Amino acid sequence: MNFWHFLITNRQQLIDLTLEHITLVAFSMLFAVLIGIPLGILITRVPHLSKAVLGAANIIQTIPSLALFGFLLPVPWIGERGGRLAILALTLYALLPLIRNTYVGIRGVDPAVVEAGRAMGLTDRQLLLQVELPLASSVIVAGIRIATVLLVGLATIAAAIGGGGLGQFIFRGLSMVNNQVILAGAIPAALLALSADVGLGAIERRLGTVQQKS
After folding, report:
1. What averages of pLDDT result for each successive group of 10 residues across the chain (214 residues)?
2. Which H, E and C letters describe 40-51, residue by residue?
3. Of 40, 201, 8, which is closest to residue 132 (Cα–Cα)?
């Protein structure tokens, strides 16, 4: 059975696993954005926390994915379901680029612009929302882009703990020593990563252009 014949024969399963894969990445990124960007903002306001927060995110990033899944298995409620476990692990992996880019983006705003905002009577909250975040948006989106591409690849490992996604084809192909089945998971995952990179890269460039004009 050749590769294309396998895809046609198993097209519904391919669609289902691709949607599972996208869902894993989407939920993980949503939670990571809700946690990572506020943490990045926090350490710009409380600088002495930056080493601890960035250090913790760095440590998580260095843990091998299967090892992290193993560490999280005993966690009540989370470890009982492969999908929940995969989302938690992927969320943790996505934190570093989000925290770091948010921190770097805000810290990189021209101090003269910040001082001008303060001189106009803007509160710290207004300064953040109206000046710093808009000017740092392209750097923050770059962090989202890096994290998304990273998670698309890492989500294939989720199949090892029953998390679903395109990794099911990859692991099945490995156990069968069947390159066609491996490619049926690997190629769509690569295309998803490429699409995310191109799409978010376009948004990043657009924001960068707007900032240069403003």
Report:
1. 80 92 95 96 94 94 83 67 83 95 93 89 89 93 95 89 87 88 92 95 85 64
2. HHHHHHCHHHHH
3. 40
Specify the amino acid at residue 72: L
Q: Are residues 55 and 43 in contact, defined by beta-carbon separation less than 8 angstroms?
A: no
**115: which 2 tokens?**
């001082």
Quick one: the chain helix, strand, coil %, rounded to 5? 85, 0, 15
Question: What DSSP line would sit under 179-198, residue for residue?
Answer: HHHHHHHHHHHHHHHHHHHH
Q: Are 40 and 166 in contact (CB under 8 A)?
A: no
Please state, in angstroms and rounded to a whole number, the distance separating the CA atoms of residues 131 and 116: 10
